[in-house]
Amino acid sequence: MEPITKILENNAAKYGSEVALVEINPQELEARHTTWKEYSLIESSPIEAFRSEMTWAEFEEKANRFANFLLTRNVKRGDKVAILLMNCLEWLPIYFGVLRTGAMAVPLNYRYTAEEIRYCLDLADASVLVFGPEFTGRVEGISDNIPKVGLRLYVGEDCPSFAESYNALVSYCSSRCPAIDISLDDDAAIYFSSGTTGFPKAIVLTQRCLAQSAEMEQRHHGQTHEDVFLCIPPLYHTGAKMHWFGSFIAGGKAVLLRGVKPEWILRAVSQEKCTIVWLLVPWAQDILDAIDSGAVKLGDYELAQWRLMHIGAQPVPPSLIQRWLRVFPHHDYDTNYGLSESTGPGCVHLGVGNVAHVGAIGIPGYRWETKIVGPDRKEVAAGEVGELAVRGPGVMREYYKDKAATDAVLDSDGWLYTGDMATSREGFIYLVDRKKDVIITGGENIYPVQIEDFMRAHPAIKDVAVIGLPDPRLGEIAAAVVEVKEGASLDEKALEEFCKAMPRYKRSRRYIFAPVPRNPTGKIEKPKLRKTYCGDALVAQQVGLA
Questions:
Q1: DSSP labels, 80-134
Q2: Whether the Cβ atoms of residue 68 and residue 62 lie closer than 8 Å to each other
Q3: Under a CB-based contact definition with an 8 Å cutoff, are residues 370 and 389 in contact?
Q4: How many CA atoms lie within 13 A of 196 on its CB side?
């Protein structure tokens, strides 16, 4: 095992002139009212209008230039460099450039509001922020309230006055790899997670965590230099990068697709000769629905080389995978389970040879151990429900500056307690419920307390509780159980209007007007609400019985 930065150096030496990264942005075409298919039929169409690429040598060079620039600004080992970018060719060279200095990369969720950005920058003690044009307004709104962030770098044209131009400054720096020793035990990155309170925790991952994810992913899925990985999820998310790491370690090409329409996914697979695709449940479902409706025709695409479809980030309905394998019978399939605290997916996985057990999250991943424990953290018998715990070289070092939270989930023997309730059957692990109340909709976490606190500000609302309801496409949707004050009136239309002040992805998809039950200590009885409005449907779906 070697630091992740060494892998980039090796790839540049072996495959320097070969393409490492491709960015495809079909949204630019649609802005011109031209479909990708129509565009490709015009012989004179410049492919660079929505497709760009980078070789391994260029990747290495850009990472080194950024690292050397940071060093000129006195960025040193242990400093934190935040990255707030949409998926683009510059994202990964910037990430690796940070790691080359011994500093820590801090990827930020592009959906964060200005206040959430400020909170995370402060929590991580970030001294540098690299951001793109999509975030200019949000960063400008907090620019006077992030005094720790002394260096603000803008990636794009027309640099705003409160930042410095990444392109203008970095391009003149040395392309030689800085002489900084990086070890597996060095801290490498901070990723953000959150519990039921909705306030992010800063997860510290080491170089060993990142290297483990690369070796594990390749061990699970057998990536070779000839494989081409289609990356659709945002790169701030461990689910995207850590799956790509398996191809990265083999020097395989990656394609960054900015968009999730079924036609775009299939056309990218076809034109770029992609062999491996990681999907979220909604994207897989949309592809199948588009095929069934005739909106896309498989005969229009070259898909014979596509060998693996794997999926994760939320409970996976077995019926969806059974349907997928009827349409794509030659595909290998894998389910991947993980947390940011375990360096993303793979600490538990189904395994490509275990398709008969679809519905399970699977078995321990490469170099991982698992156990299911009761409230006393002693193992329960097979078939009993308990909390899933995992141990392996991908476990986080800590929650940054939060010893109490660290001690609550990480014991002295290295076991990470996931907060997910599970059971085992025939050696396979099945998720039953989440100990936390996080709702996962389309692979994104929704935090009920944030929605509840916002909605309680409405003058007609007495109480509110947000729960997840099963949804065939998104896995779950947020539903708000609303108790209206006596004598007041409130309807769904008025609630929808009120909640427009929240980011769209956080809003409830359904409103239920009913009493909100609380126990004698004042806590909302969410299990009772789930039983009332979900029945056993969600549990059955998660353990593979539906």
A1: EEEEE--S-TTHHHHHHHHHHTT-EEEE--TT--HHHHHHHHHHHT--EEEE-GG
A2: no
A3: yes
A4: 13
* Cross-strand partners of 322: none
Q: Please tell me the pTM assigned to this model.
A: 0.82
User: What does the alpha-carbon distance between residue 466 and residue 445 come to, in Å, rounded to a whole number?
Assistant: 13
Residue 281 neighbours by CB distance under 10 Å: 26
Q: How large is the average pLDDT for residues 358-369?
A: 94
Q: Which domains does the chain have, with CATH numbers?
A: 4-327 (3.40.50.12780), 439-542 (3.30.300.30)
Type of residue numbered 78: G
Q: Are 357 and 377 in contact, with CB atoms under 8 Å apart?
A: no
Q: List all residues 6 or more positions away from 29 whose beta carbon is below 8 Å from its beta carbon.
A: 35, 36, 39, 49, 50
Asked which of 248-252, 431-435, 537-541 is least confident by mean pLDDT, the reply is: 537-541
Confidence grade of residue 24 (pLDDT, cut at 50, 70, 90): very high
Answer yes or no: is pLDDT of 541 > 90.
no
3-class secondary-structure state, position 277: strand
Total Cβ atoms within 10 A of residue 541: 23
Cα distance between residue 259 and residue 263, in whole Å: 10
DSSP 160-186: -TTSEEHHHHHTTS--SPP-----TTS
* Phi, psi dihedrals of residue 163, rounded to the nearest 5°: -135, 175
Tokens of residue 170, six digits? 């970095």
pLDDT at 241 over 90: no
CA distance 68 to 81: 14
Helices (H), 222-369: 238-248, 262-272, 281-293, 318-327
For the cut 90, the answer to whether the pLDDT of residue 101 exceeds it is yes
Confidence at residue 50, expressed as pLDDT on a 0 to 100 scale: 86
Which of 455, 8, 53, 37 is CA-nearest to residue 254? Answer: 53
Q: Is the Cβ–Cβ distance between 454 and 421 less than 8 Å?
A: no
* CA distance linking residue 97 with residue 189, whole number of Å: 12
